[in-house]
Write a structure and sequence with these properties.
- By secondary structure, the protein is an alpha+beta fold.
- Helix content is 25%, strand content 37%.
- It has one domain: Pnp Oxidase, Chain A, CATH 2.30.110.10.
- It has helices at residues 3-18, 57-64, 96-107, 147-150; strands spanning 21-27, 33-42, 48-52, 67-74, 79-89, 126-139, 151-153.
- A six-stranded antiparallel β-barrel has the order 1-2-3-6-5-4.
- Strand 1 and strand 2 (33-42) form a beta hairpin.
């Protein structure tokens, strides 16, 4: 990876980790598209972790079609990251408690409102891992003109 690629990788990862909310797109068993806001945490490999209720439409869609798309953006500075990948319920794995704690920590960082999941029916949330298969970082704010300078494909590790 050249210096420009390393900078794009670092910028994209910092952007993803700095934000905690994005939109997850799924398709249910009937192939009808569905998008929902999720609160997430990310690791150094662009993996996304979030919680959802097993009774939710989102969870049922993930079971039917684990291939998903995810996007987060910053509106005041036109930047976005788009990720496609495979979602998997890791609730029964050794790392589930750690990932759930990190997501809840991020959710509870808001001093004015409780985490949205705490307002729903009481059931044990599922811990979902989104493993990226494709990542694109778009920096419309600071990149030079031209699609090849705005869009940067980030290699998946």
């Amino acid at each position: 990876m050249d210096d420009s690629g390393k900078k794009s990788h670092a910028d994209a990862l910092a952007f993803l980790k700095r934000h905690k909310t994005g939109v997850l797109a799924t398709a249910g068993h009937d192939n009808v598209p569905h998008a929902s806001v999720i609160h997430y945490v990310a690791d150094d490999d662009f993996n996304i972790y979030f919680l959802t209720l097993p009774s939710s439409r989102k969870y049922q869609a993930l079971l039917a079609h684990p291939q998903v798309a995810f996007t987060t953006l910053r509106e005041d500075v036109p930047q976005t990251i788009q990720i496609e990948g495979m979602a998997q319920d890791i609730s029964n794995s050794a790392e589930a408690d750690e990932k759930q704690a990190k997501v809840l920590e991020a959710l509870n960082a808001n001093p004015f409102f409780f985490a949205p999941i705490t307002k729903l029916d009481p059931e044990k949330p599922a811990v979902i891992w989104l493993k990226p298969t494709w990542i694109r970082w778009a920096d419309y704010a600071f990149a030079q003109y031209g699609t090849d300078r705005v869009f940067k494909e980030i290699p998946v590790t």
